[in-house]
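seq as requested:
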Amino acid sequence: MRYTLQPLRLTRSQRITGYFVVALASIMTLLQLANLCWPQAQLLSQLEFIVGQPLSQQPWRIITAHFIHLDWQHLVVNVVAFVAAWWIFAANYTSLRMACLLTFSALGAAVLSHFFAPAHSFVGFSALTHGMVGFATMQVLRGNSDIRMSIGALMLLAIVIKTVVELNAQQINWLGVEAAAHAHLGAMLAGLIFGALTPTLTRNVNNNKKAP
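struct tokens:
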């Protein structure tokens, strides 16, 4: 018997979320281009989150820090991870749900860094990807059985180990700079909380199918 690999079929809602993902990746790319073409604008220093500075003096940085990157390598790695995290867990997302999750994860990253991290600054989308994985894995623990969700459990284990190592090491260089461990942890915890409080979309679909 021959088996063929079936492509992932996205619903209309999931396709819209895909366009949202592309839009966010495009914003990151445009900001990187702007930073390259107009260095005098000093976008990095304008958009980065500064740990140690009061949150009330930099509210925009809670969001903008995640959309600017140190260089093209930093951008490409984070965009690939972001798209992969969405693609694997696409069944759990709508565009509104993702927007709320990313905002909540950004707040988690900022708050935990503000109160517990030593003074530094951070940029990059990786913290929000930690939040996405935390969210999706919590959805797994609440009853999803899709194979992609099983992969998510392994991703959570890997991301927890990575975060613990980052927090306990004196200094870990990632792409040539010190990893923002507290931002990663704060966003991941926010994602876990958001996942625990949010109904699972796949479970609702399954329940609808069983209804007479």
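Residues 12-37 form the longest helix (26 residues).
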